[in-house]
Amino acid sequence: MPAWLHREQGILFQEDFEDGSAEGFFLEGAAYIEREGGTKVMSLSGTKKRAVANVYIHSWTDYVADVQFKVNAGILKFFFRVGHGAGTYLLHIEPTGLELLKNIGQDIFNLGRWQGEVPLNRWHALEVALQGTDIKIYLDGDMKCHYVDEELPVRTGGLSFAAEEGSQALIDDIVVTGINIVQEAKWVKTGGPSGGLGYDIRIHPQDKDIMFVTDNPSGVNKSYDGGKTWVAKNKGITARAGSSEDGIPIFCLTIDRNNPDIVWVGTQYMRGIFKSTDGGETWVKRDRGVSEWDEITLRGFDVAPGNSDIVLTAAEIDTGKRGWMGLQVVTGKIYRSENGGENWHEANRGLENADKNITAIAVHPTNLNIAYAATFHDGIFKTIDGGESWMAINNGLFSLDVRSLAIDPKNTDTVYAGLGEGAGIFKTTNGGELWEGVNYGIQVECPSYLQRVGQVRPGVSLVKPARLSGVDYYSLPWTNIRSIVIDPTNTKTVYAADSYLGVYVSVDGGASWHPVNDGLSTRAVATLSISADGKVLYAATSGEGVFKLELW
């Protein structure tokens, strides 16, 4: 692991309440410390309203929680792996047995039940052992429940106790041992626009203090001091939007890999490709050959290695129709220029049946003829002739909703794809011939009616746990990997952004992932960018601006 991230093995949490406090707990309702015999314990008394005691530590992964408890009336609820909106496991402790549940969003799933006597008014020893997807529950030294959760497992989080109205319980001698991922470096807010529609962040490849953030409606924003201060750089950009027509609807930005003085930006909901040749100080419109007008959104650019005249751009085209839930019906299109943007022509052979917009485009770092395009609904396409024709390469993908792409600059047949629909991250090591899920540690989520069995480990059982309650459709936000970046100095280190749950890091080429969100005041991360020396990572968030993480 990098120096700023490490594992700690040992006692993660311990509390016996003997000092009269519940340090580390957040108490709600009638939760307090009282004396029981010759010792002090925590009492949860739900006589009038729910009593809760929470330990909010999101970084716990695999751990063993030991606790002494006594239920005097009703049911004691023990929650474990309580994460940041990512679901939790729940153990109902009843006089007639134990019931293991999983709560994700508004959905509750029954994972198993042990029938047996748990006498009231008597102290019991409970142990919950968590190892990956394996859950073991012991009562008074005997294992009562064993469940392996292969379908949307909850990966990290702390613990919580609750007594509902009509219940009363005592808790004592809590000891949690195991592995804790400690993030030494913290995210720091740098400012910048708050983040509207379209939110790219890019770092100058030769000077990491120079960076750009795009935003609709503020346009292009540039920093010369690593994000401490920002200035608008929209001279020459003629596109305007909004009711007062003072918004600048820039949706995407790309710095030319060959010449960082050349920068490209594209607009949203109107035709507008603009090019800068002075490092983003001024702009000239360059969209001759683009046939659409207000129905087009430019979603990204990429430039051929060694030839700045060859540029590809991905476009979303609104058909004017509305589909399910009133959402836009859109098509995708790729434009290609061979003279630095003076003229553009469509390069769509093979994409004719792609009925959803193109979300990302990535050109091979050394071979200008190879590129990949991601789509919302039709998966991933590849070209081997510079974009003139495309072929689908979806073997192994569990979802065709692809939001982001990243090519390993040193092992160029290795490509990472960030998916929507709760499918997580997929990887190919043979140029797209086969994709495999690399989601260990990723909190993979989607609505219950679309739970994708086997997304972490293909081929698991198709038998899903019973959903006890919840709604039929969007019961929680979908896992949506909107951005992936690879450390250019060590390509085994990969960062991924989920627009719901924040940032993950892998230090083993995607084999395992760890959340790195300490310091982020929001988890709604739209885009990541890493400096050429691998020392600084930036995250553009939706609503709270740009954050910076000093890696070393």
Structure notes:
It is built from no helices and 44 strands. The chain has 552 residues and is mainly β. It has a domain of 179 residues: Sandwich (Jelly Rolls). Strands 1, 3, 4, 6, 11, 12, 13 and 15 form an eight-stranded antiparallel sheet that branches. A hairpin with a 7-residue loop joins β31 and β32. It is elongated.
Summarize the amount of helix as a percent range: under 10%
* Number of DSSP-assigned strands: 44
**How many H/I helical runs?**
0
CATH class of the domain at 5-183: Mainly Beta
Share of residues in strands: over 45%
Features:
single chain; 552 residues; mainly beta; Jelly Rolls; eight-stranded antiparallel beta sheet; 44 strands; 0% helix
Quickly describe the structure.
The chain has 552 residues and is an all-beta fold.
